[in-house]
Design goal:
This protein is α+β, with helices and mostly antiparallel strands. It has 1 helix and 10 strands; from the N terminus they run H-E-E-E-E-E-E-E-E-E-E. The chain is globular.
Length: 153
């Protein structure tokens, strides 16, 4: 009886260890969480619009946003705002064509900084409009999200 009890206990412990290792294996790699995705209002006659959001990588490996697409846009590009030496504000595609999201860190796409540019808009960006946007990540693959057009806070 004692021997079978010990065997049962050892099997139980082994099962717990296998379960714990499986849980750890799932936590390996990047894990991107998108929060507070929104777009700035602009009329259809304006040819461009912008999307903003917070990207959190809760995993243990870096990832990068490498692009996006939406039926609401002719073209979608990853952009950054910058200040010229003369003090004027400008906008340009991000260097290297990607936005790195380091493991365990948060990257904010916001007005005056990193953002997703919607070029050749196909719809009015009026408050309350919801736009489907697919984010393309280097390691995590595609992530479809819904972006609500709203006034800046």
């Amino acid at each position: 009886m004692r021997r079978s009890m010990r065997k049962f206990l050892l099997l139980g412990i082994a099962g717990l260890l296998v379960g714990a290792l499986a849980a750890c294996a799932k936590a390996q790699g990047p894990h991107i969480v998108v929060e507070d995705a929104w777009g700035r209002p602009s009329p259809k006659v304006a040819t461009a619009g912008a999307f903003y959001m917070t990207l959190r990588n809760t995993g243990n490996e870096d990832d990068a946003l490498i692009g996006a697409e939406s039926d609401a846009c002719g073209t979608v590009e990853l952009h950054e705002s910058f200040k010229t030496p003369e003090g004027a504000m400008g906008m340009r595609p991000v260097e290297g064509g990607k936005i790195v999201i380091p493991a365990g860190e948060t990257v904010e796409l916001k007005m005056g900084g990193l953002h997703i540019m919607c070029i050749d808009k196909q719809v009015d960006f009026t408050p309350g409009t919801k736009v489907q946007l697919t984010l393309h990540f280097e390691k995590s693959g595609d992530m479809p999200i819904e972006v609500e057009i709203r006034q800046p806070k």
